[in-house]
């Protein structure tokens, strides 16, 4: 069979159902204001929650540093582990109050690594059904059995824990990437204790944002992570740079160093990225005012959107989805917003469940109240066409 014969009908079908994926090209520096397809837009699509990707200090300091090379030349275990990696790991572990942090190139790889390295054949991974795709792929790479529970349903989580074979690991997003709601961590921790399970929390959308000082979901709920809990963070969202990490106990990280294939068999993150993340971490630590502004934007958006009659999701985070149902409506709304000067992408199946295509609006501390007011105006003009 020719490759074309397999994929042409499938892609054609996707085009007809408004499910074909295209890559939007940004021709300006990426930030809160972007040039896309020749138009200047306010960007309500990024995960750059504190606006740090636009921070000129980070760029300046990295460019001025003689030891910040853009290639590490090898994996961490060979000769790629530079002082900037080492210092970043230490600084992140001090910040989070954990024994150890291990750097990865992406959150995707970190999520692949933890489940593959720590869970064995005969063990059970128990996932929230709306977990990020990389967590699901991590479960597939592991030899443990995968079980899932309906989104945030603690009774079903407990049922899965009771039936689990071998060691159980509960796996959940801290903040769900397409819905913006949070995992009910206090209840999850109680069940974890009761059933002697381990826990993996993906804090990609929580670190830097949630909690008084941006230390994520655990800080938000006033909880401590114990030795059987691992947290994954990415540096590509609130940190505004690139890379990722796993935070946990010394023994958990030693196990990853020795067993995690997505960490062992890949080139280390460039030292320049590690330095950029060290500078970004200092800024995240000093971002209380930015977090307060972000919270104010979210509250304003929610209050006004509700008064317009828009149906909002139960989310206190910078991810505010507007669920529209079918893909064609979501695409039409996204296009109309583009015409009004906003980039708000339509998120469609299979990224989200069928019938729940949506606009995923995300806020950054670099947005102004006026940006949000203008977006609300544009949404209000669209609302009557929701059928
Ligand atoms: N986890 C979640 C919840 C995410 O949303 C993402 C990014 N979309 C990742 C992990 C992957 O992180 P990275 O972009 O660093 O690979």
Automatic annotation (TrEMBL):
Belongs to the class-II pyridoxal-phosphate-dependent aminotransferase family. BioF subfamily. Substrate binds at residues 21, 132, 351. Residues 40-379 form the Aminotransferase class I/classII large domain. Catalyzes the decarboxylative condensation of pimeloyl-[acyl-carrier protein] and L-alanine to produce 8-amino-7-oxononanoate (AON), [acyl-carrier protein], and carbon dioxide. Pathway: Cofactor biosynthesis; biotin biosynthesis. The modification N6-(pyridoxal phosphate)lysine is found at residue 237. One of its GO terms (biological process) is biotin biosynthetic process. Homodimer. Its EC number is 2.3.1.47. Keywords: Biotin biosynthesis, Pyridoxal phosphate, Transferase. Pyridoxal 5'-phosphate binds at residues 107-108, 177, 205, 234. This is 8-amino-7-oxononanoate synthase. CDD domains: KBL_like. It is an enzyme of class 2 (transferase). It catalyses: 6-carboxyhexanoyl-[ACP] + L-alanine + H(+) = (8S)-8-amino-7-oxononanoate + holo-[ACP] + CO2. Its cofactor is pyridoxal 5'-phosphate. GO terms for molecular function: 8-amino-7-oxononanoate synthase activity; pyridoxal phosphate binding.
């Amino acid at each position: 069979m020719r490759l074309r014969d397999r994929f042409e009908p499938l892609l054609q079908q996707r085009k007809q159902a408004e499910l074909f994926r295209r890559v939007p090209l940004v021709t300006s520096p990426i930030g809160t204001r972007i040039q896309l397809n020749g138009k200047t837009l306010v960007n309500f699509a990024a995960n750059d929650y504190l606006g740090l990707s636009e921070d000129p200090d980070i760029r300046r300091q990295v460019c001025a540093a003689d030891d910040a090379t853009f290639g590490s030349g090898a994996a961490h275990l060979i000769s790629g582990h530079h002082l900037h990696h080492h210092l970043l790991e230490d600084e992140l572990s001090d910040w989070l109050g954990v024994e150890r942090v291990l750097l990865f190139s992406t959150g995707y790889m970190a999520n692949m690594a933890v489940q593959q390295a720590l869970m064995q054949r005969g063990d059970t991974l128990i996932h929230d059904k709306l977990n990020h795709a990389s967590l699901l792929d991590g479960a597939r790479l592991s030899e443990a059995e995968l079980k899932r529970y309906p989104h945030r349903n603690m009774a079903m989580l407990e049922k899965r824990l009771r039936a689990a074979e071998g060691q159980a690991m509960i796996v959940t997003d801290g903040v769900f990437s397409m819905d913006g709601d949070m995992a009910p961590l206090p209840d999850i921790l109680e069940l974890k204790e009761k059933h002697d399970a381990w826990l993996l929390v993906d804090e990609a959308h929580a670190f830097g944002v949630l909690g008084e000082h941006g230390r994520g979901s655990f800080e938000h709920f006033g909880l401590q992570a114990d030795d059987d809990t691992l947290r994954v963070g990415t540096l590509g969202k609130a940190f505004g740079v690139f890379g990722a990490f796993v935070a946990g106990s010394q023994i958990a990280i030693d196990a990853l160093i020795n067993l995690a294939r997505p960490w062992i068999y890949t080139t280390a993150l460039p030292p320049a990225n590690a330095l950029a993340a060290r500078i970004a971490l200092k800024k995240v630590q000093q971002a209380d005012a930015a977090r307060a502004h972000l919270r104010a934007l979210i509250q304003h958006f929610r209050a006004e959107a509700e008064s317009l009659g828009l149906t909002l999701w139960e989310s206190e985070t910078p991810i505010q989805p507007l669920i529209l149902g079918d893909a064609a409506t979501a695409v039409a709304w996204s296009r109309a917003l583009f015409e009004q000067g906003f980039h708000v992408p339509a998120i469609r199946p299979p990224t989200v469940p069928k019938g729940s295509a949506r606009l995923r609006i995300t806020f950054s501390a670099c947005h102004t109240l006026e940006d949000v007011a203008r977006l609300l105006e544009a949404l209000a003009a669209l609302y009557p066409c929701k059928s």
